[in-house]
């Protein structure tokens, strides 16, 4: 007797790979943004200063919640991608285990 | 206001590179990740079906969260470019200082090299320029999409921003301005199409644009033509009301009108309450005038336009509108009493009070007389209008310091009653008595200024009981009773037996203040 587990391993492995890439890409983007901020906005002389800069950093006006909050959100997004990847990987392993058990039974 | 500084090109560089990387990442999420997530959600039936942020019911998915976050960040980073443009504009327009960094010293700064310089300007310049850029962008959107819900939502959000609204209206063609007003401002149904106060938002936004002083003449011309040509509509009273709340906008608006347009709008139309609403806008404009002379110019303009017409149909608001107009002008024109009791200064002040009161009341009195005859007004209505006007003028005469409690309001009350009765009489009496009534009015105004002078002298403690050389030791207090007593003494038919008064400041006879001779 065989047990049919409704799960697409290929889709799970593909998603796992993409979630790892998402972690890398989001992290890289946050670092790229931080580097540009340092080189372009905080250059000396000519550092960007004023109310608009304050809003850019801390939120307000047209800058939404601000750079610091956005960078934290990017970091949180990268961690979230890894958390979900871990659960997808676990599901993938469970599927493989189930498939092995099925093969052994048969 | 604090300073702001930046190198425009650095802000362009940051914005361009971050938004470029952001767009690449967002496209990867939309293309690769989203399709993988969808496939997983469809196939993870027996396993992986309860992963938060992926497959758990109601939890959303990480690709959607990523797109949302990247969108927010992209909007913020794109705004950095607008800030850079604002600095560049400030540098190019002489609104800040421009310093070239050391590496450019071997080059020849000029032309379009401002973008590489350190520009220092005020925060206000940057925020104003940002508003202008955003307003211009909305105009660009409008030119493509027309007056849709997004345009209204943005206008509502920025309706009180002069730079934004001016840039928006300036970015439209005259035909588009017309369409905008027709769409939002001139609906005729029982309720606006969107269920929101579109007309009110448009009226406030347009007033803000006028307040900026940067509205183009083409737009001003279109607005004036629209107002002059259109029949009764919902937008007009709302626009006038918005101007009434925004003095600088009101002043700029009426200054933009040709004499013909001004007269047309001022005349209103029989059966429509525009006249009082237009007058209230003019009253606000007077509030924005820098001095009495310019205030009187506006007063004369609207007064002449309204009083030379024959369309007055006295709505209940009219009396208040006239009173507000007169009061605003009086507040700008009437000066505070002189510091001392020197005859020349005191006389000059009372002459100013007298001439100002007369200049503000006289044109409206003549007009009320004419309209009373043509409109069959009841005496009570006229008296109410007159009372409003008179009290508005008197309410703006600067209070005299040093008077007994209640003395000044008593003085104004007396004058108010006298003036109201004299004017009402001049208006409502038969024509043959008009000259006599007008003389009574002039006499009442004179009496007011003279009583003010006596009150001032009393307040300074310079009037003593008794004839010169025999005066008492204590000066008379500035009380209503003393003011009355002195006036009555000078008006007495038997001056030899009437009470005598001395004035110490002059060293003798109160009558040396020759301007008081009218009440002797």
Q: Could you describe the 3D structure shown?
A:
The complex is a heterodimer of chains A (106) and B (520). By secondary structure, chain A is mainly alpha-helical. Chain A contains three helices and no strands. In chain A, helix 1 packs antiparallel against helix 3. The longest helix of chain A is centred in the last third of the chain and has 39 residues, at 67-105. Chain A is rod-shaped, with a radius of gyration of 22 Å. The N and C termini of chain A lie close together (6 Å). Chain B has 520 residues and is mainly α. Chain B is 65% helix and 4% strand. Chain B is built from 19 helices and six strands. Chain B has helices spanning 8-43, 62-92, 123-145, 149-158, 162-170, 174-185, 198-212, 217-229, 235-244, 247-256, 259-267, 274-288, 292-307, 316-333, 343-375, 379-394, 407-428, 434-459, 480-491; strands spanning 3-6, 97-99, 118-122, 463-465, 501-503, 508-509. In chain B, the strands form two sheets. Chain B has a three-stranded antiparallel β-sheet. In chain B, strand 5 (501-503) and strand 6 (508-509) form a beta hairpin. In chain B, helix 7 (198-212) crosses helix 10 (247-256) and helix 18 crosses helix 19. The longest helix of chain B is centred in the first third of the chain and has 36 residues, at 8-43. Chain B starts with a strand and ends in an 11-residue tail after the last strand. At the A-B interface, helix 1, helix 2 and helix 3 of A face strand 1, helix 1, helix 2 and helix 3 of B.
């Amino acid at each position: 007797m065989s047990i049919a587990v409704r799960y697409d391993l290929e889709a799970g492995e593909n998603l796992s790979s993409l979630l790892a890439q998402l972690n890398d890409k989001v992290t890289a983007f946050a670092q790229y943004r931080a580097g540009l901020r340092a080189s372009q906005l905080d250059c000396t002389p000519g550092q960007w200063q004023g109310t608009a800069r304050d809003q850019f950093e801390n939120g307000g006006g047209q800058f939404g919640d601000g750079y610091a909050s956005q960078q934290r959100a990017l970091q949180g997004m990268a961690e979230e991608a890894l958390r979900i990847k871990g659960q997808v990987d676990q599901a993938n392993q469970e599927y493989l285990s189930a498939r092995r058990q099925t093969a052994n039974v048969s | 206001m604090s300073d702001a500084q930046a190198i425009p090109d650095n802000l362009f560089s940051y914005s361009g590179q971050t938004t470029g990387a952001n767009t690449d990442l967002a496209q990867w999420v939309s293309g690769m990740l989203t399709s993988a997530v969808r496939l997983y959600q469809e196939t993870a039936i027996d396993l992986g079906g309860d992963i938060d942020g992926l497959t758990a019911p109601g939890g959303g998915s990480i690709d959607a969260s990523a797109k949302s976050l990247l969108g927010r960040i992209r909007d913020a980073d794109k705004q950095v470019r607008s800030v850079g443009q604002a600095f560049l504009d400030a540098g190019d327009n002489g609104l800040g200082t421009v310093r070239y960094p050391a590496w450019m010293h071997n080059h020849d700064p000029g032309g379009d090299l401002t973008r590489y310089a350190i520009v220092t300007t005020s925060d206000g310049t940057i925020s104003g320029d940002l508003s202008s850029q955003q307003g211009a962008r909305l105009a660009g959107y409008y030119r493509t999409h027309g007056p849709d819900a997004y345009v209204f939502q943005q206008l509502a959000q920025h309706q009180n921003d002069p730079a934004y609204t001016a840039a928006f209206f300036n970015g439209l063609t005259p035909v588009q301005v017309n369409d905008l007003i027709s769409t939002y401002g001139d609906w005729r149904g029982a309720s606006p199409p969107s269920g929101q106060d579109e007309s009110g938002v448009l009226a406030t936004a347009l007033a803000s644009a006028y307040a900026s002083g940067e509205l183009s003449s083409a737009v001003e011309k279109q607005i004036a033509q629209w107002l002059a040509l259109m029949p009764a509509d919902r937008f007009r009273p709302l626009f006038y009301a918005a101007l009434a709340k925004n003095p600088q906008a009101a002043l700029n608006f009426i200054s933009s009108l040709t004499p013909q347009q001004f007269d047309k709008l001022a005349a209103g139309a029989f059966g429509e309450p525009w006249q009082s609403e237009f007058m209230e806008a003019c009253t606000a404009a007077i509030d924005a005038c820098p001095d009495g002379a310019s205030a009187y110019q506006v007063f004369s303009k609207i007064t002449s336009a309204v009083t030379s017409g024959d369309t007055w149909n006295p709505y209940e608001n009219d009396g208040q509108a006239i009173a507000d107009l007169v009061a605003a002008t009086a507040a700008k024109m009437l000066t505070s009493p002189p510091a001392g009791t020197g005859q020349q200064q005191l006389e000059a002040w009372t002459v100013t009070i007298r001439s100002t009161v007369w200049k503000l009341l006289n044109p409206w009195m003549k007009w009320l007389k004419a309209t009373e005859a043509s409109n069959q007004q009841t005496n009570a209505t006229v008296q109410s209008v007159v009372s409003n006007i008179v009290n508005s003028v008197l309410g703006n005469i600067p209070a005299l310091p040093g008077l007994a409690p209640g003395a000044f309001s008593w003085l104004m009350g007396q004058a108010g009653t006298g003036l109201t009765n004299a004017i009402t009489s001049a208006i409502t009496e038969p024509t043959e008595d008009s000259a006599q009534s007008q003389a009574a009015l002039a006499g009442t105004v004179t009496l007011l200024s003279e009583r003010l002078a006596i009150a001032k002298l009393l307040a300074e403690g310079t009037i003593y009981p008794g004839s010169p050389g025999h005066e008492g030791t204590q000066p008379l207090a500035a009380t209503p009773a003393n003011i009355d007593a002195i006036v009555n003494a000078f008006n007495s038919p038997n001056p030899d037996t009437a009470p005598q008064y001395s004035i110490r400041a002059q060293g003798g006879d109160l009558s040396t203040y020759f301007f008081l001779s009218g009440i002797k």
